[in-house]
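# step 3/5: fold
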Amino acid sequence: MSELFDAVDALIASRAKLPPPAERKRLRAAHGLTIDEVATALKVRRATVSGWENGKTEPRPPERDAYARLLDKLAELYPADATAVPVQDAAVPATFTAAPAPAEARTLSTGQRSEAADMTSTENTQTPAPAPVAAAPAAAPRPARTTRTSSTSRRPSAKKAAPAGTPAGGTDPRFENGPLAVVDVEDGQVLAYCTGGLVLDVPAKSIPALVDWTLREAKLGQPKLTGPGKDADPLLVLTEAALERYGLPVTLTEEQKHAGRLPEGHKVIKQLARAEWKLTKRGFGPWARIYRPATGSERACVQLCIPSWHALDTRHWGEAGQLPPAELARVLGVYASRVMTPRGSTAVTGLELMTALHPPTRASEPDADGRRHSEHNPGSLGKDPIDPMNWPPCEVPDGHPVLKDLPRFHVRGPGEKLFEEAYDWARPMTDAECTLRHLVGIDVNMAFAAGANGVNVGLGEATHVKAPVFDPKLPGSWLVDLSHVDLSKVKVGKEWVELDGSLLPSPFTPKGDRPEGPAWYATPTVAYAVELGYEVRPVEAWVRYENGRYLDGWYQRLRDAYLATMADLGVGADLAPADFLAAMDGYRERDPELAIVTTAIKATVKGGIGKLRERPRGEGWRPGEPWRALSRPTWRPDIRAAVISRTRINLHRKIVKHAAFTGQYPVAILSDCVVYAAGGPSPLDFLPYRDGKPLPGGFKLGINPGLVKHEGTQDVLWGEEVRERFNAPELNLARYIKDGSVTDVDTGE
């Protein structure tokens, strides 16, 4: 009989009446509960609870019964009272009004205007009186979409520490609402979803008015990252509904996609021109910048991000562009607070971060009249690009102006061209390796960031030197013959060791082939030949006497961003090997939104390094002519080559240490992924740990840049089968080790 009663109770509970979404949130907030705590208690995702509170979804059994019980208990404790101001949510910096907001949009009072807003003020416009605003907590969970603000709102301080995940507004009063906002339209009202759960009413009726409101009232932006730098401009992300509201197309036509912008005659561009706003050379595209010329140090600039125009590349931002506004604000806000406000693609942002940390100029000491002037900032790349005709021919890509006198179809070999690239190498397995059961891939965390850490790079132009004496501390490009380096006998530390050189890739070429004569190499590659115990005699070199560790701060910021985000996902920096592997298992599912941030951070590293040697991108370019990227001081293929060289050498050094100690050799290498044959499926089945300590100088499991994680495991039979299927005995298995799917012949591209 009790089973029947339970079944009846469950049936009644399945139709349990729930309060409206806004009341659900009020009850949770009144008791000081976070969305995280409710989600944990009900064993659902935070996004699920957020959906229940904003009315997008409804709970279903068995969670509906438990959720109804929770809300009933809270309703007894906190009965609805229209005249009372509810207790503030401990985690979400929401604000509450004493009376319902009118249907017409109202502007958030944000105190005194910023300097940029003062520049763009129009006649008969006054700033509303400031509302009392307290500092928001440093981090908060995923915000609910119903958090609203109005001119009478306030932001009380949190009652308890908020969990990591979402940055709230900064401490700088000019940017107290955070670095960015996602602009959406809901029930006819334009709303700006900011970081930390804050939502602003937007009164603007047009794009020019939206830009003006952003600079006057929204208090969006981000303080500069270093002394002589510049504050980050506010970023507005426009949803599809916002695009329709402001007269912009939801998607671009094929012609507009190819051009990367709207046509000059579009009505919105005309509106901006009439309001005396300007666009940068890239026009009104997925990452539009709208500005007025700066006056002194004052800036008036707003950046737009339009996800439906593919501003957020799915390779780097996953499904971020499909997220609801509050969740998208969270993802971009975490990235902005830990890296910087996005300035375009992750590659563009990676490059901009270098400049933000090393601004080209600074203010001088006061002169006799007490005035300061702009001067070169030591340690930076300066404000002027290197003259294209002053570049070393060996360092530039094909088609560069300095090569315009070469025959049209001339192919430069290693004796003419610096070719420092990541590994793409594989070899057939030995008979002994075929008797093992597994192929295990390990991947170096943020390998190129680790390669950038501590590398000495040139800051100015190169000097040509004939028959130089090699100096490992002098960055540059060296023409030297390294074909005499024999990997069967090398120095490891201070001792000579004998290895099976046929099972190792050469450290001097991306394909792992042994050099056949003089070739151009970056300094870290030549220094490694010396480290292995061999003499080097360069024929000539292009060296940079003005140099420094330009990328150290860049590495540190990206490293800290990555480690902080991985810690939020439950992967700490000091875990024991087995605990680390367990923590990495399924970490992306713990918080898919924060997992997007980790992908974007890694893409910022790779993209930023790649952008240092940006190639022509259409625009009618012809070989021998300069292209747009050459006008940047940050067009520095020599720095890119140094970082990639050091990354490849760092990996080879670990491989040699591992081989010398264990007798194990890699089967395949692709960039930062290395595959070994092993008796078991785990990296711990072949990495030599003793009492929990790794081989000094070898591979170490961990989340820090330069340490390794498990990339994937497949059967040895799988590797032999795919190589036989494609008749490719040296198919690079590292390319497919993650999931084992091979869709086409490996071309190495």
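# step 4/5: annotate
The two ends are 69 Å apart (CA to CA).
# step 5/5: archive (pending)
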